[in-house]
Amino acid sequence: MSAPPKISVRNVAKTYGDMTVLERLNLDVEEGAFCTIVGASGCGKSTFLRMLLSQETPSRGRIEIDGAPLPGEPTPDRGIVFQKYSVFPHLTVEDNLILALEFERSRPFGRSFGPSRKAARAEIDDTLEKIGLGSARLKYPVQLSGGMQQRLAIAQALLKRPKVLLLDEPFGALDPGIRADMHDLLLGLWRELEMTVFMVTHDIREAFKLGTRILVFDKIRHDPHAPDAYGATITYDLPLTRKDAGPPPELAGLAMNADTSTGANA
Amino acid sequence: MRIINRKPSRVTSITLTALPFVATIGVYALASHYRRLENPADKLLPSFQHMGETFWRMAFVPDKRSGDLLLWLDTYDSLWRLGMGVGAATILTLSLGILIGFIPHARSTLAPYIATFSLIPPITILPILFIIFGLGETSKIMLIVVGTAPVMIRSVSQEVMNIPRELIIKAETLGASVLQMIFRVVLPQTLPKLVNVMRLGLVPAWIFLISAEAIASTSGLGYRIFLVRRYLAMDVILPYVVWITLLAFIIDRLLLLLSKRAFPWHHLGGETL
Fold this sequence. Notes:
The complex is a heterodimer.
Chain A: E1 7-16, E2 19-29, E3 34-39, H1 45-52, E4 60-65, E5 68-69, E6 78-81, H2 93-105, H3 114-123, H4 125-130, H5 146-157, E7 164-168, H6 176-193, E8 196-200, H7 204-210, E9 213-219, E10 232-239, H8 252-260
Parallel strand pairs in A: 3-8, 3-9, 6-7, 7-8
Antiparallel strand pairs in A: 1-2, 1-4, 4-5, 9-10
Helix pairs in contact in A: 2-3, 5-6
Chain B: H1 10-38, H2 48-60, H3 70-102, H4 104-117, H5 126-133, H6 137-162, H7 165-173, H8 178-215, H9 221-228, H10 234-262, H11 264-267
Helix pairs in contact in B: 2-10, 3-4, 3-6, 3-8, 3-9, 4-6, 5-6, 6-8, 8-9, 8-10, 9-10
């Protein structure tokens, strides 16, 4: 028998009261995949990601990781980068990065002092250089550009070496040029750390550029008298082989859609 | 240009700031002048010189009966009570605020209770405090705590709940325990808000301090004002009111300075009033 899929989603639905956001989700994702998730605003992409993070629980169905049920709360085996509020505003760049080490080593309060703090700061030197924040190590996040903040957020999310990395529109607020740099950084880290990545994005070109597999979320069932009765599900699940391939013709319309709705968060 | 886009220059800004103060003093000086033309012994609007002399006497001439320098004695006693009251209220606020804002079970237990408690007019509790704690210092301090803590706890709980959920989740994915999240994420994010809540809480704290001193005390700024009221001694009352205002202003500015020094990240974003 082959190994169980890294993430397995079985008949998952999410409802809020009478409103169905997601329904009939079925998915097996093998280890090391880079899944990009696209779809119109409000179709539950972020909700799906939050369920993978255990920030929310499915109303029906189940999600498994390595063949075992997903833990009931966020744990270090799944890293997360949000579009906003991803780094700690009250900590400098270097303190944001040593925080995970401090949580691990300094019980019960998670604060290290003196030599151990110094040692932790030395340990993250390489990381700082790699993400190009070596000269900004004493700055607070609010003093950084959007791109620098997200680089810090990604580095921070990877400190615990998660096997699954979740990204919720991480580059949505960045300039196109900066985005390209971030793509290179992210792809490099993905190959190096052999993670399974789920990334929600509004930018369909980004989805095709980065992903090894693209998941398109959309509503296929409509009841005109009860618009909330049916939720979105995965309408396309395409493996991507050529990295530079553009969107296939049947998704060209969606690309336009996604471009106009950039910025809104589902 | 529309007025919302017009910014005063530095000189204009300082002039505008001074304007209402100077106007108040001017109006007072005029009114006092004309009243004293009619009756040189007028007690209601004493001259600045007269008030200055009285203030000097309160500050630097020992009291004939007790030998104390009354202004400093009153100031010390009042500030001590205020400090103890606000200090206790702040400790309560921080611990309960974080519990209520961060732990859902604590929220269910305490939030409605404290919301109810905060609706009791604190001054109605004063007789109860006098009966329980006697007429000493404890009941005055307790009045300040009872009067300020519930509202402060409500604001700080809300501030804790307003911490972006993303930050808490991020801490969880970095392997933090609950205690670690409280000390490394929630507490640092809450402290600058707490200082702000303290600055707002000081306003009612002064009210309850002066009230308690007016009703049952033998020293303190509030006691003195209400004592000399019987003799229509506006020459004492007015400088005392200015003095109390000055003290309140200095405490407020010190707290703001503390916040800027201790939490620079919180003030990088914009102007703080």
